[in-house]
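Task 17 of the worksheet. Students: predict the tertiary structure of the chain below and write it out as structure tokens. Keep your answer in the requested format; marks are given for formatting as well as content.
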Amino acid sequence: MAAELVRGQNHPLSQIRLEIRVCAGVPVLTGATLGDEHGTVHGCQWVAHPGAPAQPGVEVPRQAAAEHRLAVDLAALPEAVHRLDVFLALPAGTAGPDRFGAVPAPHATVNGLDGTELACYTLTGLDAESAVIALELYRRQGAWKVRAMGQGYADGLPALLADQGLRDADDLATAIHEAAHAPPHATPAPPNEPVPRATPPSSARPAPGGKTPSAAQTAQAASEPPAPSVSPAPSSSAAPSVSQAASASEPVEPARRYAPQSGEDAGGAGPGHPGGPVDYTHPRRAHSIPSPPAPPPPSGPSAGDGQAARPVAGDAVGWSMEERLYNQVWGMFEDLARTTAAYRSAVDYADSRLEKELDQALADPRARLGGASDAAREAALARRAQLAGRARAALDRDLAQLTAEAEVVEPALPPAYACWGAPVWHAYRAPAEPPMALRLGDLHLPESAPLRIPLLVRLPLERGLWIDSGPGAGAGDPVPDLAELRHLAVEAAVALAVRLLAVHPPEAFSVQVVDPAGAGARALLPLTQAGVLAAPPATGAAEVSRMLERLTRRVDLVQMAVRGGAAEALPADVDTAQQLLIVNDFPHGFDERSVTRLRYLADEGPAVGVHLLLVADREDAAAYGPLLDPLWRSLLRLTPLPDDHLADPWVGHSWTYEPSLAPAGSHVLQQVLAEVTKARTKQW
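Model answer:
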């Protein structure tokens, strides 16, 4: 029985040679785009369309028609291709309808060459769109899957192609429409050009590619990094950059595009050979370089049997194992977001269908007599249970796969990404280079409570952090009293500070503390006893003012040196190491001048290596009125207790954030700090 997909849902493909059938009811033109691991289409030769119907691994019809058949051979796709999107478009310049909302809902099926129907999808909910991505075939851990997309574009085919990275989208769209109208003999297909390799990624954090679909367009929409913004709630921070989460109702932004990316386009066995050893050679290297030895092949069922390949740590694209693990973690985050969105969408559909059927059953007064009404109600409830059960089964299948992946990924994470309970900390040694990212905590959803996804942010930090010490809407556990909550907030700040010190080379990172009333002295003991602070914690208004003045001067001098190209001409008393300023119990002990300096450090400091970690209850700053609102919005809000204040940018999932703390009774923080101190002593 074929899987009947809802928007955003995916399904594994048990065959690699496929036939995709499209029935639209009215003439439409079809085509397919070939995307790299980021979903980017790198030129017209990456598009199969009526004017160029045959590309490696895919062939599409030459004419607009009400029914189409597309041939796909996943084994024949070029090495650089990780996704194949099937699109539909209404022909331009005809007397026919100009929007999909005025035509019957198109229906697409994916069949094997033996006629077996593998999956089907009806594109409902379209309105003003004149072009739509119907299906996406993508590679995940060496296995291929199909996802129901339904992502429409009111601006037509040019917008669809431009969203996938094509620079000449308008010209190509015009050529496609012209080719679809011309007689077959008038549009000879040009010879296939080889698909070029994508250019190597830059060292900077990935940015979103194209616009992100809204929740109305895709029940699973997810952006990679990247990432649209959501209007911040009064108590939230501003929307973060690609790899950072946001507070309150702001988005958690992954490091990949909307469609599955780094975690899903695993550099594993080549297409057509699912389940084989993973090839870690970066597909976008300009020159051949040695790659790490491949792990042993999976021992379980192969993807060709319809089963997912055995998870492998580092099974994602990247220049190094660290980058591959980073991309894989974000891939897991996106997969969990999508599969949960598909489940919620399916349940919502089942509920709305139940309500509609019950209304119809009760609309006829005659049906209310006898057992007809009861029978109709029972039938409607049974259909609702069947739909919801199928959706839950699909969710459980995906959760089982993600859980299996997490079980192999978590033990392989380096210290910067690992939880404090990981064995890697027991063998900790000071690194020679800083990492590319840092773990701030974990994320999970109500439907997948046991599964935790690490929340990773790129380094150096591009925005400050705010650990909210005020009462919040926790995850159901009893909330401690205010004093204990503030102590927990400082402990969370200390754990983050220790991690930052540990993952940077000796003397490359420095921590300073402002604690005006000394309220955090007990929680700060690990830092003060280890002697890793650049100076004793500043207490009292005068010391707070002097420390802020010193850091403000450092920011000003470094900015001037960078602008003048004289970075080596800094005064000898300027510490060039990156600085983390922990401010406890804000705004206690701050006058207006100190508040102004703190806002300046939050805005200008990250660009020159001065980072802010604020421990504060926003209500305590109410006396300042809206003066501090820009400060709160500029910071990434974290919590000392589990709290569902983070939201992704695609469908607005409320993610529960849990801080990264040392296990109860563990001395791992003290052990790591002792090693940091030892490494610094050797440096001297």
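Marker's comment: The chain has ten helices and 21 strands. The radius of gyration is 28 Å.
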